[in-house]
Amino acid sequence: xxxxxxxxxxxxMGKPMAKRIVSNGYELMVFxxxxxxxxxxxxxxxKAASTPREVAQVSDITITMVRDTPQSxxxxxxxxxxxxxxxxGSTTIIMSSVLPSFxxxxxxxxxxxxxxxxxxxxxxxxxxxxAGTLAIMVGGNKDIVEKHxxxxxxxxxxxxxxxxxxxxxVKLANNISLYISLFASQxxxxxxxxxxxxxxxxxxxxxxxxxxxxxxxxxxxxNPTGRVGPVHWGIPEKDLSMAMQVASQVxxxxxxxxxxxxxxxxxxxxxx
Length: 272
What we know:
The protein is α/β, with parallel strands linked by helices. It folds into 2 domains: 4-163, Rossmann fold, CATH 3.40.50; 170-271, Orthogonal Bundle (N-(1-d-carboxylethyl)-l-norvaline Dehydrogenase, domain 2), CATH 1.10.1040.10. The chain has helices at 14-23, 35-43, 52-58, 69-77, 82-85, 100-113, 125-131, 142-147, 149-152, 166-194, 199-208, 214-217, 234-249, 255-271; strands spanning 4-8, 27-31, 47-48, 61-64, 91-94, 116-123, 134-139, 156-162. Helix 1 runs parallel beside helix 7. The longest helix is centred in the middle third of the chain and has 29 residues, at 166-194. The chain is globular, with a radius of gyration of 20 Å. It starts with a strand and ends with a helix.
């Protein structure tokens, strides 16, 4: 029998992820507060729900992909939320980037209701979501992860990271590396051009040398003006803030993360 899947949150990442699911033959029900993306998914073969609770009531697996921890708390644990409608034996998969402690909180609530919970943070931007090549970092019981591997692999390549919340920890580690290397690369290329070397020459050498990284390989998203292509500064601000919060919980210093976070804050002020 075909698994019934629910998907909540059809934003820049969620919409192409949901399209991947329905295009792979899954029976899909979707919810978003914006009608446009819902209509697109309905046109692609999905059904629409009026609340997150309604999604969970009819789904074997409910995926959430909303912006942050507060939105996730509202759609999962709030009024008319997922946990109000989730069936015993169903699975809730949190794919938003949220605090690890929130995922553990949902898992505790799920245990009381007989609902299994995974966190499955993603990396790869919209291009990866559209192509189905996301890096998916999963936390939770290994047997449950394997049970849902086929579904998750419609969206990308999964890595089991440990217990519930571990996927979010690895995602934050990834983003610490991403944003620090992004600003380091901007500084390096700017240093070269200010000393009279053509930018294309610098990039060609860095791509082949030890200074290579994602920002160098995708320079259109990391140009020296400090603008990261289509990525809004609110996303790095949120992720770096979460990373510092999680680091403080284990008394681990992250001085470079703190510095980059301040730079991002300054850029937001400049844009406001």
